[in-house]
Each structure stands twice: as C-alpha cells, then as structure tokens.
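Postdoc handover notes: sequence design on the structure in folder B. Input tokens:
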C-alpha cells in the first residue's frame, strides 16, 4: 500500500468563521449529483447506482439502500471500503433535511454490520482509503472536522466499524505529527495516540491563531478516548497522564476565538471527562 503524505499547510486553517459558516456547520452537504458521481466511479455501481437513477427524494433513497444492503450479500473488501465511504457521504447528504436522521444512522449501522471480521491489513486499507477520500482531497480544515462529526455513528455501529474509525483517527494524528503510524489493536492504540499528541507544539499553534487546527487534532484524540474499549483498556497511570496533560493545554490557550472556545469545552467535556469515566455509553461524550 502506497505511503500517503498530508501537507497540512495546504489546508485553510482560518479560525475566524463568519456567522453564515457557523450556521452551516463549517461544511457543505453532499448533493444528489455528488452521490451519483461517487457511485458511478465506485465498486458499488451495479449494486446501488440504479436506485439513484430511479429515486431522487432522500428518505425513499435511504430506505432503498438499507433494504438492498440488508439482503444476504457477498462483498469484496473494495465494496466494503466504498460502503464505509458512502456511509460518511450519507451522514451529510442533503443535510438540510432534518427528518431523516434515523435513516442516516440506520444506514451506518447496516454497513457496520455487513461483516463482523476483517484482517488488520484490510482494516488499515479501508481507513487509508477514507483518509485519501476525505482528508487529502479537501482544501479546508472545517471539512476534516465535518468528517470527524460522522465518526461517533460509525464507532457505535459495531466493533469492526469502531476498529476502522480508530485506525482512521490514528492515521490523521500520525500524518499530522509526521510520525510512524501505530495501528495495533487494543490498548496500544490509545497510548500511541497520546504519544503523538505530546509531540505537538500547542503554544505555537495558539500564538499563531491556529485554533481550528488544534480542535481537529484534539477531537481526533477525543474520539479515540471515548470508545468504551479504549477507556476500559487504559491503565490508571496513562489516564492520569492524559488528564493532567490536557488540563495544562486548556489553561494555556486563548479562548476568545470560536474554535478556542470549542477547544476548551471539548477538552473539559469529552477528553478529560472521557478518560475519567468507565461506565458511560461509547462516544456519548463526543
């Protein structure tokens, strides 16, 4: 598998967002044409594209996708990979339609349970493919943050889906910190993520006003720590180190910008609370 390099400096890091951008959750939703284009170029062309040609309304289309994927299917790794990409696209598909959230979540759940086992190599392949699609190809940090917003639903879907999501989050951290990726399953994932987090010069990011960038990285780690199996495998020593480390970050940064305030709140309510909690629902703090 080819090594992927992310030039983070090419992504817009402006944390000064207008009210209009705030209202749009920092991203544009995927359209009917976007969906049709993706499926036409994917391994799902025969399986799902015909329904897109027949159905234009969002809710009936979700229903048809869910029905088609609920049948007894034999899928290749490439098809599973494209289905995970599809699940992320559909989380913001025609986002202005607020009445289909249950269908969005159901589709993610169905995709997450199409198989209950993949080899580690295949998990990493899917995670890298998602990274290539949604991180490398974008030009605004807010779109990476929008990608992260879809991760809780994927983590909740199944243990395998959670493995793929955590691998993706570790890839984001590894590429950002320019360190060898640590994608072992289990406890080592959390410790590797924390080791990468500690390589970041937070003071430099704060002084240069790169609070959106800070939020992206902290949320990536926060999503990992809020997986139940990560918290349960986390030794008390490591949990205490994470708590103290992020308390120092929270106290040292400027909270006046939109993202500065988001960083402060996310650290308090998701990272610190997450690492100190062992009996909550996975990702319920995210």
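Designed sequence:
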């Amino acid at each position: 598998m080819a090594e992927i390099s992310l030039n983070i400096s090419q992504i817009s890091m402006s944390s000064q967002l207008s009210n209009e951008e705030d209202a749009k959750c920092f991203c544009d939703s995927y359209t009917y044409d976007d969906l049709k284009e993706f499926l036409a170029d994917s391994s799902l062309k025969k399986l799902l594209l015909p329904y897109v040609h027949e159905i234009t309304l969002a809710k009936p289309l979700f229903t048809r996708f869910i029905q088609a994927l609920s049948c007894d299917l034999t899928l290749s790794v490439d098809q599973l990979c494209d289905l995970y990409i599809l699940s992320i696209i559909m989380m913001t598909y025609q986002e202005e339609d607020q009445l289909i959230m249950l269908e969005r979540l159901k589709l993610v759940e169905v995709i997450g349970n199409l198989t209950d086992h993949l080899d580690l190599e295949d998990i990493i392949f899917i995670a890298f493919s998602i990274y290539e699609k949604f991180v490398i190809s974008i030009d605004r940090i807010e779109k990476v943050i929008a990608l992260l917003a879809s991760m809780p639903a994927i983590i909740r879907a199944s243990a395998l889906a959670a493995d793929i999501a955590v691998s993706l989050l570790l890839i984001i951290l590894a590429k950002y910190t320019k360190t060898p990726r640590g994608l072992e399953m289990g406890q080592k994932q959390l410790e590797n993520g924390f080791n990468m987090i500690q390589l970041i010069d937070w003071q430099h990011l704060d002084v240069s006003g790169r609070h959106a960038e800070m939020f992206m990285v902290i949320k990536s780690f926060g999503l990992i720590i809020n997986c139940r199996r990560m918290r349960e495998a986390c030794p008390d020593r490591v949990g205490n180190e994470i708590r103290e480390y992020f308390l120092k970050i929270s106290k040292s940064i400027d909270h006046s910008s939109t993202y500065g305030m988001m960083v402060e709140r996310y650290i308090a309510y998701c990272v610190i609370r997450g690492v100190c909690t062992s009996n909550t629902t996975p990702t319920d703090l995210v």
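Context for whoever picks this up: The chain has two domains: 1-7+23-183, 186-286. Don't rerun without checking with the PI first.
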